[in-house]
């Protein structure tokens, strides 16, 4: 049975029902898709967790007092003091011999810097090999050629290494002698009546090692006579004698 056209009120009533239905469906979909209340805002949640985290404080009864900071400079000073005490010092040797008539022999011009260390200081290198006799030349010089009355002559022994490398020489009255003569007369020797000594001295190539000897202008004898005889005015010759090579002589005059 065919129906006639609907009334205007019925038409709008149907439209309203349809619109309400659509809105109801959209509301259900929106409700189903909204975030869960458990998840919450991540920013606010993190802020809440951070603010809720308890603050820990060091126990006042343990550890270092925070009001007294450690002093780096004090620690550095302690370390320096400790390091300084560990340094080992090597012993310094000295070269020299004796002379007759109570005359002393001493290194000249800081030559003791060449002395071979005798101690076992930490980090010290081993001593150089002994010098060959032909690798060392011994010469002598006087501080002047003429000596007024009462002035004692001073002589300087010079030992020079002419070998190819550093070596150790034995220096002292056992290996080096200064002899003073007048013509054929033996006047004085630096080895008369003194203990034979020999100190190891490291000689670098071409660097002289000097030893000074002072003569008191008296005669000396091998048999160690007690009599004192003064050298007369005149011309004298000083010459080196040694287990090593020697060269030259020194002529001087006493007044």
Task: Label this structure with key terms.
20% helix, 3 helices, 255 residues, DUF4232 domain-containing protein, alpha+beta, 5-stranded mixed sheet, Immunoglobulin-like, 25% strand
What is shown here, in short?
Residues 75-89 have a biased composition (Acidic residues). The chain has 255 residues and is α+β, with helices and mostly antiparallel strands. It has helices at 8-33, 42-52, 72-86, and strands spanning 105-107, 136-142, 146-147, 154-161, 167-171, 176-182, 185-189, 199-203, 209-214, 234-242, 245-246, 250-254.
Structure write-up:
The protein is 20% helix and 25% strand. The protein is of the alpha+beta class and 255 residues long. It has a domain at 100-254: Immunoglobulins (Immunoglobulin-like), CATH 2.60.40.10. The strands form three sheets. Strands 1-9-4-2-11 form a five-stranded mixed beta sheet, with no helix packed on it. It has a five-stranded mixed beta sheet with strand order 3-12-10-6-7, with no helix packed on it. It has a two-stranded antiparallel sheet with strand order 5-8. It is rod-shaped and about 175 Å long. It comes from Thermobifida cellulosilytica TB100. This is DUF4232 domain-containing protein.
